[in-house]
Write the structure tokens for this entry.
Amino acid sequence: MNYIKSVPLLEQYYGTDINKWPEVIKQAKTKTWKHTITALGIAISYLEEALIAKQTLMTSEYGVLDLDEEGRLMLDSQALEHLEILEVQGRLKAQTEGSLLDYLDKTVTPFGKREIRRWICAPLYNTEGIIKRQDAIKDLVNNQSLLNCICKDLQRLPDLERKISLLYTYSVKQAKSPIVFENMNLKRLLDLKEVLNGLEQVKALYVNIAKYKEKIISERLRVLTKFVGDGGIVPEFSDKMKVFKEVIDWSKLGKDTEIPEPNGGVDEDYDNAQERIKDTKEKLNEELVKWQEFFKDKSISYVHKKEVIVNTCIALSIRNK
């Protein structure tokens, strides 16, 4: 099916008088949108094979799909379902296997999987953008060592997109509250640390990619693999990471547990509380030394229980004296 064959097919259903055609089809014919007319001709040919062309076309409505700010087509739910973009309708339930997403998805990260899904649901309309993306893919295909390097490093990354989104949501909720370390959720701080570690891995990834810069021909791939300061589009984040490193100290407790604490001078109330805790511990230790000297037993110590914060543990043999 091509443009020449599609026009007579349209005339068969809408007549030879173009002024009586639906407005969108008339506009496509007048402006010689050959690809649009050809696609419509293919759709009509399929409807004829299904024996539902006449009743479908006589009641059909045509419209132009909207483009977003980046010049991408916004496919609606009906288009996604009928074209089997994301799922294939089975007898019992829809399944991903056999869909366009299943065929194209070769991603190695959770955020890559979500991105390819967004690309498919909102495909590029601008020819120049499509060609740039194709050139970038061609570059990667022709440089397997570069592709393997990128995939290997990406697989080690945490789901940064989701982690950062969760941290942002939490910060918005806390925007009207004073930020003090005592009431911040420990889980969020651990998420922050994971994000910081992930960003360090991202920096290392770009260092590895720089080794292959002479082999990168695609303009799009070049700017995607360089920081802004080097002529790319990747934002610099080293300074912002440095701030968090200077503010938070990750002290060890046990083997696997990490308790984040603010560094000195960050929060005055916290610093004062720490001084009071330090003074209290010193007084308790002094008192413990007195008991040990009194009973002449170094095994006397403090123990912690749920009901009482501090208990003095004394051997039964000594207590009965």
Summary: The chain is about 55% helix and 5% strand.
